[in-house]
């Protein structure tokens, strides 16, 4: 049986990817809608007010479409979301889509910084633990990773603020910029480091870095714990392979065996691990953003929840879920492509 041409295989893979993505996103939209109907918050009461007359309350329900049957409400919700309409926030007075576009870059910036710290520390520590499996270095890395999994993020954030900001003064406090810069730097991209660079304000960029380093390190610690554990597990499995034993018997330096041979083979699955780490930081930044008053999607959802603004809560949740799904599916596609390429290289 002849193999399908490369172009046809690519079309099939892409079609499968898009179909799976569409089904997943549709499921996410439906789940988000159902959450909005289960939460004990009446959107009509929020819009009309606690002292609204029965007529005003009924008019608010009609305007929001809450008087329709549930399946019709779902159809309207799905249609609106697919057209980019997430409703209007009663908290800000803007559309939820505008709010999400305004606050999401702050979360992405924080998650990217946390991922870079986590990967930069987690990968070498994981390789070290695997190379010294069962020894002191391995136990130390595993202990550090265990603490990263066990300590609540809000507690670690508060302790970090107390020690490094209030006592030592090494970092800046909550927020993204000091008040002196907050209203003078124009928002071009929404990423404060980029915007301060575009504005030609090196002092503002340093101030932004001083605000970013502590919350990013908190998230990076949890990211490091996961990346180190997965790297260690993958490397231990790879170091037990026959080619590693043969390389050691030939006198190949251990550093070359670790990084030139074993790590190269675990790099492909690590792509998925790193992508999932970044996705988890996107959705897991809620508590960190709340502790550090970081104006991202997590703080936005928290404030909207306290304000009983369900459009903002559901829109923000949907945006985070969409980002998670896209990153997850893209990482899976990249993993397949890289894995197939490596198999072809082995055959060659």
UniProtKB/TrEMBL annotation:
SUPFAM superfamilies: MetI-like
Localization (cell): Cell membrane
One annotated GO molecular function: dipeptide transmembrane transporter activity
InterPro entries in the record: BPD_transp_1_N, MetI-like, MetI-like_sf
Residue span, ABC transmembrane type-1 domain: 104-335
Coiled coil: none
GO CC, any one term: plasma membrane
Keyword tags: Cell membrane, Membrane, Transmembrane, Transmembrane helix, Transport
A Pfam family this chain is assigned to: BPD_transp_1_N
Residues annotated as transmembrane: 12-35, 110-131, 143-166, 208-228, 266-287, 299-327
Membrane topology, record value: Multi-pass membrane protein
Main location: membrane
Protein family: Belongs to the binding-protein-dependent transport system permease family.
This protein's name: ABC transporter membrane spanning protein (Oligopeptide)
């Amino acid at each position: 049986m002849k193999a399908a041409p490369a172009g046809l295989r690519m079309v099939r893979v892409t079609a499968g990817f898009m179909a799976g993505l569409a089904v997943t996103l549709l499921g996410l939209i439906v789940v988000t809608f159902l959450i909005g109907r289960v939460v004990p918050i009446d959107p009509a009461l929020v819009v009309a007010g606690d002292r609204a007359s029965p007529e005003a309350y009924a008019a608010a329900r009609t305007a929001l479409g809450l008087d329709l049957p549930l399946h019709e409400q779902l159809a309207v919700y799905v249609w609106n979301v697919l057209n980019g309409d997430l409703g209007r926030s009663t908290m800000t007075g803007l559309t939820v889509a505008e709010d999400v576009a305004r606050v999401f870059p702050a979360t992405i910036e924080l998650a990217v910084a946390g991922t870079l710290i986590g990967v930069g520390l987690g990968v070498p520590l994981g390789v070290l633990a695997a190379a010294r499996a069962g020894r002191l270095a391995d136990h130390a890395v595993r202990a550090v990773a265990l603490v990263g999994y066990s300590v609540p993020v809000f507690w670690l954030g508060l302790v970090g603020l107390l020690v490094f900001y209030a006592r030592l003064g090494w970092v800046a406090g909550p927020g993204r910029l000091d008040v002196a810069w907050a209203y003078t730097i124009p928002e071009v991209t929404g990423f404060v480091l980029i915007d301060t660079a575009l504005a030609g304000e090196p002092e503002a960029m340093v101030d932004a870095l001083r605000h970013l380093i502590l919350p990013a390190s908190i998230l990076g610690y949890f990211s490091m714990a996961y990346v180190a554990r997965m790297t260690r597990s993958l490397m231990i499995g790879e170091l037990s392979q026959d080619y590693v034993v043969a390389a050691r018997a030939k006198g190949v330096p251990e550093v070359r065996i670790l990084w030139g041979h074993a790590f190269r083979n675990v790099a492909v699955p690590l792509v998925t691990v790193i992508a999932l780490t970044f996705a988890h930081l996107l959705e897991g930044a809620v508590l960190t953003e709340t502790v550090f008053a970081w104006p991202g999607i997590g703080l936005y959802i928290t404030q909207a929840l306290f304000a009983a603004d369900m459009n903002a809560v559901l829109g923000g949740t949907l945006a985070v879920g969409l980002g998670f799904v896209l990153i997850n599916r893209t990482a899976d596609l990249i993993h397949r492509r890289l894995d197939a390429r490596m198999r072809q290289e082995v055959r060659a």
